[in-house]
Specification:
The chain is of the alpha+beta class. About 5% of the residues have low confidence. The longest helix has about 45 residues. The chain contains 11 helices and 35 strands. α7 packs across α8.
């Protein structure tokens, strides 16, 4: 927090807190009223469905839709035990009906058939730097039938046979080993290679190579767009590419919440706005663009001109529900495979071939109990919920100096930093811990920050920290000037000593027991 607080700042901050509490009470009352109305509406809808066997919503029920969304078919999760699928983040399906899945927990690739039967896993490579993959992020099949895997930690693309045997590292012309940061790769019909490269914070871009490895195009720069239409051609953590039959290149510009479209040579064409965080994308045989929205927990379907056609999936733990989907692929039948990371599975969906008949709802109390029992699964995240802390750089440095950083690296804790500050931690390690894996970047509310600056006179950096800390509920910092305003807003503030005393005892005990 820059500079001491003046009496005027204190007065303005006190007024801001009183006003914030008043508005908070109003919001709670409004939320309660809306909840009661929603419950009444749901009760009426259930009664209507019971009487009419259809939902009281236009185009839902007995009628047909102009475009019906895909239907959930089944899920692939692997066998029980050590070979169970845990953190699937990328998927590809080959023409011989093999499903290759990047499992972030094992830092390797698991292989299934399209019916979900487990076959084998692999992650061994031959490199001067490593003998195994360290942080694989994407997996695709090349036109020649090889399996290509990106590894962000090793800053490379590694090529395997379909049976998982390591073949070579892909090093196209003009690229020095470890000088780039490929996170995804795709191919067009001519065998050209498109690589999303975020090797440096200043150069988030796409690089295209011909089949022999000669660079044919490069475009993009790092830009955090102010709105969905701003800074065309600029990227902020792009994630994936897909090439249409006409040769247009679609790029998921994840943190700018949009998909951008370019010609083969990188010429910008247009933007497709999205509502969340687009990650994996694919273009199907009908030339529809399917986009995984990781934070909305759904898959959006667009015409290639950007018109939204339909969507499928929603947040949850039940059948056909997602928790942080990330990637998408198609098999030769047109079925859709989606990685469902936190539900530990790959979901398989298919387009309907006819009108879906009305669903017979439960009639007896026992049937209702069985139908609603999966809702109990919603309680699981409450028991597994981690304690979140907004953390400042001085706190991290203090933990490093005290040789206590391993205490932070505990699954019970979640460490958050403003997204605008995350770049300073990328590629950094301390005590053998990668800071860009320990810390989670999150956005802040620009309107809340502007309001706090205008009403209290604090600087923008302080306003960002205070508003984020109020939302998260805990602030880990050594800055005493941040403590008073944060605590006044109901935030639990801890310096290093307080954190170790209140929260770290269990971690220390487990560490001693392992010794």
């Amino acid at each position: 927090m820059n500079g001491p607080k003046t009496p005027e700042t204190n007065t303005r901050l006190s007024r801001y807190i009183v006003d914030k509490e008043r508005r908070s009470r109003v919001k709670k009352i409004v939320a309660l009223v809306l909840l009661v109305l929603l419950l009444l509406l749901l009760g009426w809808a259930a009664s209507y469905y019971s009487a009419n066997r259809t939902l009281p919503i236009p185009f839902v029920g007995r009628g047909t839709q102009e475009v019906q969304p895909p239907q959930f078919l089944y899920a692939i999760s692997g066998p029980e035990g050590p070979d169970a699928l845990s953190k699937p983040i990328a998927v590809c399906v080959t023409d011989d009906d093999r499903v290759y899945v990047v499992d972030d927990r094992i830092r390797g690739i698991r292989v299934y058939d399209t019916d979900g039967r487990y076959k084998f896993s692999f992650n061994a490579i031959e490199s001067a730097e490593a003998t195994r993959l360290r942080l694989p992020g994407d997996v695709v099949e090349s036109p020649s039938g090889e399996i290509w895997v990106t590894d962000r930690r090793l800053r490379g693309i590694f090529v395997f046979s379909k049976d998982g045997a390591y073949l070579r590292e892909y090093l196209p012309e003009g690229v020095e080993p470890r000088s780039w940061g490929p996170i995804s790769v795709s191919f067009d019909a001519e065998g050209n290679v498109y690589v999303v490269d975020i090797g440096t914070a200043e150069q988030h871009h796409v690089v295209a190579f011909d089949p022999s490895g000669v660079q044919i195009a490069r475009w993009g720069r790092t830009v955090q767009a102010d709105n969905l239409e701003a800074a065309p051609g600029g990227f902020y953590f792009p994630n994936a590419t897909a090439v249409s039959a006409k040769g247009d290149v679609f790029v998921s510009d994840s943190n700018n919440r949009r998909v951008q479209v370019f010609g083969r040579d990188g010429t910008f064409k247009y933007i497709i706005p999205t509502s969340g965080t687009p990650r994996g994308l694919v273009i199907d045989g009908e030339q529809r663009l399917l986009v995984v929205d990781a934070l909305a927990h759904t898959i959006d379907v667009y015409a290639l001109d950007g018109k939204r056609i339909t969507a499928f999936g929603n947040p949850g733990v039940g059948l056909g529900q997602f928790q942080f989907p990330n990637d998408i692929a198609l098999d030769k039948r047109g079925r859709i495979f989606v990685t469902d990371r936190e539900n530990h599975q790959v979901q398989v969906w298919g387009w309907p071939t006819n009108v879906i008949p009305p669903i017979e709802g439960p009639r007896e109390p026992v049937e209702w109990a069985i139908c609603l029992s999966p809702l109990l699964l919603l309680l699981i995240p409450l028991f597994r919920r981690r304690k979140s802390f907004l953390v400042t750089e001085d706190f991290i440095e203090g933990m490093v100096l005290a040789e206590k950083l391993d205490v932070m690296n505990d699954k019970r804790f979640r460490w958050v930093v403003p997204r605008t500050e995350f770049a300073k931690y990328e590629g950094r390690e301390a005590d053998g811990i990668a800071l860009d894996e320990l810390l989670k970047p999150e956005t802040f509310s620009e309107s809340d920050v502007v309001e706090l600056v205008e009403k209290t006179g604090v600087d923008r950096a302080t306003a960002i920290l205070i508003t984020m800390a109020q939302r998260i509920g805990r602030l880990a910092t050594e800055d005493v000037l941040l403590r008073e305003p944060a605590e006044a807003l109901g935030v639990e503030v801890l310096d290093r000593a307080e954190f170790l005393e209140r929260y770290a005892q269990g971690t220390e005990d487990r560490r001693k027991s392992r010794k």
